Structures are given as structure tokens and as C-alpha cells.
Q: What sequence folds into this?
């Protein structure tokens, strides 16, 4: 995802963070800024985990980058929910 630039990180990260927050039931507590942060950090988490599994994440393309951000964002929101004791309703 490094080839996308900062605007790509913001757009893909924001979209992935928003969809992850909908999926995890935290959308009411998050605004656009937090969705972007969750998506970008999720991309870093997802990329790190995929590299640990031996997946080549460089040059994966736009859809692969989005899915990596989405998966990482869901993991991040799940871990934050565990840490804060929040349960999905």
C-alpha cells in the first residue's frame, strides 16, 4: 500500500475503517477521523500479519490493499473491544 501515497492511505483506510466499524457495531462511537485512523492502523496490522504468514504484500493491488486494511481494522476493533470490556449488542 506504500505506492498509493498519503491520499490513498486516507481514502482506503477511511473506507476500510468505516466498513469494519459497521461490521463490529462501533460506528455510532466513531467519526470520520477515527475511521481513517482505524483503517490505516488496520492496514499496518494486516500487512504485518500477512508478512508473518509468508504472503507477499508488495504490489498486491488496490483490492488486496483494501482487504488487508479491512481485515486488520476488524482485528483492531475486536482487540480494543476486549481491552475496554465493550460487548457488541
A:
Amino acid at each position: 500500500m506504500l505506492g498509493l501515497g498519503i491520499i490513498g492511505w486516507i481514502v482506503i483506510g477511511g473506507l476500510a475503517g468505516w466498513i469494519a466499524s459497521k461490521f463490529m457495531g462501533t460506528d455510532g462511537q466513531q467519526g470520520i477521523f477515527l475511521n481513517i485512523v482505524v483503517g490505516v492502523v488496520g492496514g499496518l496490522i494486516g500487512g504485518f500479519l500477512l508478512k508473518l504468514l509468508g504472503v507477499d504484500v508488495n504490489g498486491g493491488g488496490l483490492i488486496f490493499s483494501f482487504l488487508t486494511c479491512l481485515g486488520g481494522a476488524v482485528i483492531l476493533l475486536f482487540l480494543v473491544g476486549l481491552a475496554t470490556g465493550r460487548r457488541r449488542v
Remarks:
- The radius of gyration is 13 Å.
- The chain is about 70% helix and 0% strand.
